[in-house]
Fold each of these.
Amino acid sequence: MKLTMRIEYTPRDLRQRLEAGQGVINEELVGSLTTMREKVTAVATKFAPVDRRGLRTSLQPGRTDTYTTTDVARKRALVGSKLPYAAVHEFGRDDGWWPPRQPIRDWVYRNRRKFGVGGGKAGQREVDRIAYLVRRKIARRGIKGKHYLQRALESIFPAFARRALQQAAEAILKRLGLK
């Protein structure tokens, strides 16, 4: 013979509290996403490739917003850069097409000492030649992505998510009067 006993205790106004709590839940989630967005930005600046620190200084936390897909509200926090080459550093670039000339030439010129290039007209011709070779190599082989934003998210997400969910749950229970 099997005996099962089930005891439930729910406050009478639990349904009202939960319905009222939807706004609280949204507030807590947006707050957590905003904090996470700022932390990812800070860590990504350390992982971003360096050349004049342009990419690192251009990384900015974007907006935290809500969007709806198939009647499900979703929250997202954006982090990124407006630099045209930021996506290339993050995701890489396929082979088969030539990159723009001027940015590569500017990069070679800034790093001409690494290539052993001097000044004057001969140095300018050498910069042009090296820029051509770099562009050709990129066109033939592509560029492997550095995944600096992905690595930043992966490095902070497990600990941050656990802590953020814990804090959000406590705040929600407290504001609903259940704790």
Note: The radius of gyration is 26 Å.
Amino acid sequence: MTYTPDNPLIIQSDKSILLEVDNDRYEDARDVLARFAELEKSPEHIHTYRITPLSLWNAAAAGMSADSVIAALHEYSKYDVPGNVVVDIRDYIGRYGRLKLVRAGHVRQSPRGEASSTHDLLLISDDPALVAEIVHHKTLRSFIVEQVGPTTLRINPAHRGRLKQALVQFGFPAEDLAGYVEGTALPIHLRDRTRSGKLFILRHYQQEAADVFYAGGDVHGGSGVIVLPCGAGKTMVGIAAMAQMQCATLILTPSTVAARQWRAELLDKTDLGPEDIGEYTGQVKKIRPVTLTTYQILIYRKRKGAPFPHFALFNECNWGLIIYDEVHLLPAPVFRITSEIQARRRLGLTATLIREDGREKDVFALIGPKRYDVPWKDLENQGWIATAECHEIRIPLSIDYRMLYAIADSREKATIAANNPAKMPILKLLLDKHKKDSVLVIGTYLKQLKTVAEAFDTPLITGRTSVKQRERLFQQLRDGEISVLAISRVGNFSIDLPDVNVAIQISGTFGSRQEEAQRLGRILRPKRNGLIAHFYSLISRDTREQDFGSRRQLFLTEQGYRYEILYDTEVADYEPTLLALRAEERKPFLIAG
């Protein structure tokens, strides 16, 4: 058995991979693993990855071969790579593309002798046995119109998306080469200079991502997901793709604020005019060649079980491109409509493909595979996103709260820990430390956030804050008129705040990895004078919140961020303040959000 002690990986026969953090080759190995394996846990010294079929299919779709994956494992492994792992990598990567969806045009004659051109949707494979298995599969056969030959099946075009979902579950994802409708033509050109006169050039990775997505505009390009860090300019990639496609575009966003930021960027960076861009939200419903909407308006309905009236938007225009901003947030009902519009090109933009509902396979099948990504630390080293330091501060519960926590049920435990009043003096210390900085205080529980807003005389944005008021407060923060802003979960996504360099998370959503990544992302835009960004997470010590915190950090650990773990007494000598607070909290109570 070969043994290379200086290498950082141990590959095990169950397809798990152990990565030594304290190894000179750690960072190189981590960046390679991120392309074809999933991070499962990341304690201090050994990180655990796992090779999965989906991770390998995404790697294959992004251009990695089985040989390149296996070569990477050999390069960094301490021991020989187990033979079954090598076989499985070749097998699963080899499955991607063994089935292909294609269009076949031919002429049909009607009983009257009239000729018409048709374009059948076909599922083809070089493996007759695989085709036979599909024909006899209980679920898959329902999508088949007829078997044309031993290697060809004619498929109902309306079931293109559902078939792709089913084939992923079946274990043989289809490569979709059936092409797309062109959509209504729309001339779109990028400006050399913005409307304010500033020089505008796409960053090299933004251009690369758009090029990979477009892929010459043939059937091999035009759908898929681009993964870039928050603050790296995913909107610019979307705009570049629009300029390449030159067609009517529907853009789905997480919020009205995000939709209006897209509109501002389109007007600033392209030759589109205000008359070309429509907003379809709760307040305005104008459909234009480029139309911006939100996930919330799309899934609105009067009652459970009623139809979704705004789904009609997908067919209101002959869209040639649909952009899903923050695709990891895609609501379940939108998956359904996306399944029905597979003939339109689809671009997903996200900082993380992680979905807490486990529907990554549906993103792969219905939006498309991952086409492009860049490690966060690579862009940080190149200066495209800010250098960030992450800190987790562990704070004890008071005696009263500890007893309340001890007797609470599982869900109440999480709420009690998140709303620990002992976080308040630590928050004060951090705000004092960063009084010259621009700070976001981010939380999940509304009553807790209202307490923060009142205690520190800071504005608060929640889901009930009007869009106009949100935009006004964001602008005041940008302009330096206010230095601290408290914000609920509505601040997780698509907010352009370039000069904010400190984020303090006082409560989070259980173990949401995507939320942690998005919250850090609020402060990753490049800073003036090279300021370092600071991300603080306040955690109640020895509680479920501490466990959730470790899980939330998982994705960021994979990107190369390390959390400095501090205890309350290490932050500053604030014990008198804490003692006074504990004296006031003799009566147990529960903060509910």
Note: The chain has four domains: 9-95, 99-176, 204-374, 383-584.
Amino acid sequence: MDSASAQVRVRNATMHGQMTERKLRRKVREMETMERGKLPMPASSLAELLDCPPEARTVLSNAVRSLDFKEGEIVFRQSGSCKGLYVIVSGRFLRKSECLDLEVTLGPASTGELVELAAVLGGRRHNYTLSAQTQGSTLFLPLEALDKALDDYPPMRMHLLQELAREVSRAYYACSANRVIGTRHKHPPAAVA
């Protein structure tokens, strides 16, 4: 990640839900530590990230599982049926989209990121393809368990919608920053004599 996009992410995290970002980062650090130490991944980690009451947390904790991916392996394909929610725990993953016979790289999925909230909350079809660039792992929460938890605790849907809004906002700011930086580099200031 270049320094400009890192600055945008930090600024955006400050502007939008800093507490959620802190909580997410803390949990990811814990997960990474467990991954490095080969300790078992706690089933409750994803449920805690979703910030729900104990009853819904139990449903989610019982359903969540860790998935390992090898380099080059596809996690899910664009337009495929969404089977659940993923959180990147370790490794490098890349988003790609196909449109009008063109393949567009959308960028990496970062450690700790909830992946494909739009598909989970929307039409239940993936908007892009996610593949492992290196060996890595994710936490996976099946839709059935998530739907049950959302039925039992409706405010969690709003929490996920807020996270989706922050994701869209981060992408918008990253695109805007890249556009501004690109414009500055294309038209260097005139030399002063």
Note: Residues 3-172 form a domain with the Jelly Rolls fold (CATH 2.60.120.10).
Amino acid sequence: MASLLGKRPDLIYSDSDHCVSLLGNVIISFSLQPPNPSYLKAWTKAMDHLVESTSGPIAIATIIDSRSRPPDETSKRAIRATVSKHAARTCAFVYVVEGQGFAAAAMRSALSLISLTARYPFPQKVFANVPAGTAWLFQRMESVAVTSATSREIGSTVETMRSRVKHLATAV
């Protein structure tokens, strides 16, 4: 599989709580808080763009801070609609809920249950840290011969996104 080493991720959206980037065939989002309408609109548009501008399967990586509240029902429906729309092209979806303790574990459990009931035709998994989540995602991408970002490149993109969001959050 070819690497995108040296290729910069395309920053699609950023506010003080969220960031969305595209890296090869992967859409990566980082959130400190639940989705807001602007973020959801940008994320949906980015998913549409990724599917239209790439060939082959895509992968989704969503990184959530454990202090974030769960999304409201409207946001959940919007996310499900977008993921369902592109399910045929998706090879894997990873959630990473960062943090330790009861709140983080409860959120990971809730996402695991939601993933089971969604019955998407692609594998999904929830992790506690970015390295484990991106390694799993990369293995899924390799299994369908997706030429895209490596686990290390995805992790580096997440760190850049985290820094950007935290910088914007302190500037507000």
Note: The longest strand covers residues 90-98.
